[in-house]
Amino acid sequence: MLSNRCKIAVKDELKSLGLHFIIVDLGEIEIMENISAEQREKLKVGLMRSGLELMDDKKGELIERIKFAISEMVLEMDETFKVNFSDYLSTKLNQEYTPMANLFSEMQGITIEKYIIVQKIERVKEMMIYQELKISEIALKMNYSSVAHLSNQFKKVTGLSPTHFKEMKDKREQAIDSRTILKTEPILHEKIS
């Protein structure tokens, strides 16, 4: 569950089934009652209607918790975030890092480190598009050791340099702006006398 909207959807579904919850949080629901097989199936179907999934698999649950913790970490990251990623995940999820990392690699086909890099680059792209920050400002905020380090990772993940990505974004915006201007220009009608 990556947002409050997801939590609300889960709570609503539980209430509709007459189930009382103690916790609805990061991929976790704690229900007061014992849940019947029929209620579980109804909950599963109801959650699917909201685009959510009821996980029955402990390994799958842990993978989702890892992904959520990484997303949270990348969103909260700023120049003051100086924690080692493995320490952060171990503490956040109360798990030893090595077995967690091995499971993640086995089930996702990518290491946690590479997954974090991809998530950081997605965040960098958002910052470039929506916050209009300079690459040097983004590198600082995202705790890269240098602009060159950020640029190298960006190119490995996207195939583009940050500068080329920004130029493409600017060209796209200009094209949209010019189409908007063309569509909004008034049509002149000749007066017939």
Can you count the helices?
9
Major beta sheet summary = 2 strands, antiparallel
Helix/strand order: HEEHHHHHHHH
**Could you name the CATH topology of the largest domain?**
Arc Repressor Mutant, subunit A
Mean pLDDT across every amino acid position: 83
- So, the CATH homologous superfamily of the largest domain? Homeodomain-like
C-alpha Rg, in Å? 23 Å
Helix content: 55-70%
β-strand percent reads under 5%
The largest beta-sheet arranges its strands as 1-2
What's the number of structural domains?
2
CATH architectural label of the largest domain: Orthogonal Bundle
Total strands: the figure is 2
| Ends apart, CA distance between termini | 68 Å
Oligomer: single chain
- Secondary structure class reads mainly alpha
- The outline comes out as globular
CATH class of the largest domain, please? Mainly Alpha
Low-confidence stretches: none
